[in-house]
Write a structure and sequence with these properties.
The complex is a heterodimer of chains A (273) and B (185).
Chain A (H helix, E strand, L loop, with lengths): L10 H4 L8 H20 L28 E2 L36 E9 L10 E6 L24 E5 L5 E7 L4 E3 L5 E3 L2 E6 L8 E6 L18 H5 L4 E2 L10 E4 L2 E2 L15
Parallel strand pairs in A: 2-11, 2-12
Antiparallel strand pairs in A: 2-5, 3-4, 3-8, 6-7, 8-9, 10-11
Chain B lengths: L19 H4 L15 E9 L9 E6 L24 E5 L5 E7 L10 E8 L6 E6 L4 H6 L8 H5 L4 E2 L5 E2 L2 E2 L9 E2 L1
Parallel strand pairs in B: 1-8, 1-9
Antiparallel strand pairs in B: 1-4, 2-3, 2-5, 5-6, 7-8
Classes of the chains: A alpha+beta (273), B mainly beta (185).
Chain lengths: 273, 185
C-alpha cells in the first residue's frame, strides 16, 4: 500500500479494491490457500482457525486481520457469562420481516427456523438472535449500498427474536437476492442472511451468515471461502425442509447453530413475562 | 474436552459492510445511564494495519458492575435507562472512534478487573476477542495469568489509560506495530 494517509477514506472508496483482479485470479488464490491448509494439516501442523483471518482473496481483509497468533487463555470471570436476554428485549412482531411495513414485500417468502445448541447438543433457551439481509433484488437498505437494484418500500430486512425453551427460533422473511460487490471484477455474494448470537459464555459470541442450498456462487465467493474446510462451509447452508414449508405461503429452510463449547448455564428460566 | 457427542461449532463470518440497520439500536452504547453515579466514558479508536481508523467496526463490551457482580438483568437490547445489564455495543464513527457509557468493573474473586471485548468489522473475516483492563491495581495486574505472560509492549495493548475526567481511553489495533493482543479460548 502506498497510501500512508491516516485519514479514514470515504466509505464508498473503501468498497472499491485498488487493483481489481478477475474472478479467475480470485478462484486460483482461494484454491491455493485451501490446498496449503490441507497439506499443513496432513503434515500434522497445528490447524489454523476454521475461519481464516489472513485471507487475501477477500481484499478488504488485507489490512484488517491480526498478523500475530492469538493468545490461548482460559476464559475467566466475566468471560464465563453472557449478557442475559429475554422477551423484554424484542417485540414478537420482529420475527416477521414481512410485516414491518404497510404492504407486502416482493420476492419469495420463506420461513427460516432452527435450534441454537451448545457443543453437547443441548438447546439454548432465551438466546437473542439478530438477523439482517438484502431484499429479494439483492439490495441492502443501507445508504452506502448504491448498486442499481431496487429498494423495496415494504422491506427493511432486519429481525430479531429470543429462542424458546427448546432453543428454537423462527423467522418469516423474503429470500435475499445475490448481491454484487467490488472485491474483484464481477464479484457476487451468494444469497445469505447475517445471524448474530451470544451463547451462554461471552467466548461463544458469534456473527455468521446462513446460505441457501445449491447456490452456484459458493465456489466463487471469497467470504464464504474464508472458511478453509468444506465440511465447515457446509454447516452454514440451510436445508430445504418441506415440513416447514407453509402451504400457499412460504418455502421452509432449517438451519441449526452450534455455539463453540458446552453451555455454562444450561437451564436459565426466564423469570419474567 | 470430550469428543464423544461433541457437535462441531458453526463457523463465524464477517459482519460485512451493511450491518448498521441490523445491529444498531437506541442507546446501545449506554451500559450505564450517562452521568448517573459511577458512570464513566470508555472509548478509543480502532485502527487497521496502515494506521488508518476503521469506520465500519462494531465493538462490544461485557463487564461486571462496580461491586464485581455479573449482571443477570435482561434488557440490554432495549434499555430502560436505569438497569445495569453489563453489555454494550458501539459502532465506530467515520473517525474510527467507539465510545461507551458504563461503570468501572469491580474485581471478581480478587482478580484484575477487565471488560471482555469482542470486535467485528467489514474486512475482518471473523470476530476478535480481547480485554480492556483497568490500569489501577498494579498488584492484581502483575498477578494476572494473561498479562504476566506478555511483554511490556503487548501488555500495554490490553491496559486502558485513565483520563483526567475518570474515563478510560483504549485504542484497538487490528494489525501492525502495537497490534492489540487478541485471545483464543
Amino acid at each position: 500500500m502506498t497510501d500512508t494517509s491516516t485519514q479514514a477514506a470515504a466509505p464508498e472508496s473503501l468498497l472499491a479494491s485498488p487493483d481489481m483482479p478477475t474472478q479467475r485470479q480470485i478462484n486460483a488464490e482461494i484454491a491455493d490457500i485451501h490446498a496449503d491448509h490441507t497439506s499443513r494439516e496432513a503434515r500434522g501442523e497445528t490447524p489454523a482457525p476454521v475461519t481464516l483471518y489472513d485471507f487475501a482473496p477477500y481484499r478488504s481483509s488485507v489490512l484488517r486481520h491480526p498478523t500475530k497468533n492469538p493468545r490461548l487463555v482460559d476464559p475467566e470471570t466475566i468471560e464465563l457469562w453472557s449478557p442475559a436476554f429475554g422477551q423484554r428485549d424484542v417485540a414478537a412482531i420482529e420475527t416477521d420481516l414481512t410485516l414491518q411495513h404497510t404492504g407486502e414485500p416482493l420476492g419469495e417468502r420463506i420461513t427460516v427456523s432452527g435450534r441454537v445448541l451448545d457443543s453437547w447438543g443441548r438447546p439454548l433457551a432465551n438466546q437473542l438472535v439478530e438477523i439482517w439481509q438484502a431484499n429479494s433484488a439483492g439490495r441492502y437498505i443501507h445508504q452506502r449500498d448504491q448498486h442499481p437494484a431496487p429498494l423495496d418500500p415494504n422491506f427493511t430486512g432486519a429481525g430479531r427474536t429470543i429462542t424458546n425453551d427448546n432453543g428454537e427460533y423462527f423467522f418469516t422473511t423474503i429470500k435475499p437476492g445475490p448481491y454484487p460487490w467490488k472485491n474483484h471484477i464481477n464479484a457476487w455474494r451468494p444469497a445469505h442472511i447475517h445471524f448474530s448470537l451470544f451463547g451462554t459464555g461471552f467466548t461463544q459470541r458469534i456473527i455468521t451468515q446462513m446460505y441457501f442450498p445449491g447456490d452456484p456462487l459458493f465456489a466463487l465467493d471469497p467470504i464464504y471461502n474464508t472458511i478453509r474446510d468444506q465440511k465447515a462451509r457446509d454447516r452454514l447452508i440451510g436445508v430445504y425442509d418441506h415440513d416447514l414449508t407453509v402451504p400457499e405461503f412460504s418455502m421452509g429452510y432449517t438451519w441449526d447453530i452450534v455455539v463453540d463449547g458446552p453451555s455454562a448455564t444450561w437451564f436459565e428460566p426466564e423469570g419474567e413475562h | 474436552m470430550s469428543t464423544e457427542t461433541r457437535l462441531e461449532p458453526t463457523p463465524g463470518q464477517t459482519i460485512g459492510p451493511f450491518f448498521a440497520f441490523g445491529l444498531n439500536y437506541p442507546k446501545m452504547h449506554e451500559v450505564a445511564f450517562p452521568h448517573s453515579p459511577g458512570a464513566i466514558v470508555v472509548g478509543g479508536t480502532v485502527y487497521d494495519g496502515s494506521g488508518a481508523p476503521i469506520p465500519d467496526a462494531i465493538v462490544e463490551i461485557w463487564g461486571a458492575d462496580s461491586d464485581g457482580t455479573v449482571s443477570r438483568e435482561r434488557g440490554a437490547r432495549r434499555r430502560d435507562d436505569h438497569t445495569f445489564t453489563g453489555f454494550g455495543r458501539a459502532a465506530t464513527t467515520d473517525d474510527g472512534h467507539y465510545e461507551f457509557w458504563t461503570r468501572n468493573p469491580g474485581p471478581i474473586d480478587g482478580k484484575a478487573p477487565f471488560f471482555a471485548v469482542v470486535v467485528f468489522a467489514r474486512g475482518l473475516p471473523n470476530k476478535l476477542h480481547t480485554r480492556i483492563y483497568l490500569p489501577e491495581d498494579a498488584d492484581a495486574l502483575a498477578a494476572d495469568p494473561l498479562l504476566s505472560d506478555l511483554s511490556p509492549a503487548e501488555r500495554a495493548t490490553l491496559v486502558a489509560t485513565r483520563t483526567p475526567d475518570g474515563g478510560l481511553r483504549h485504542d484497538i489495533r487490528l494489525q501492525g506495530e502495537k497490534e492489540t493482543v487478541f485471545l483464543a479460548f
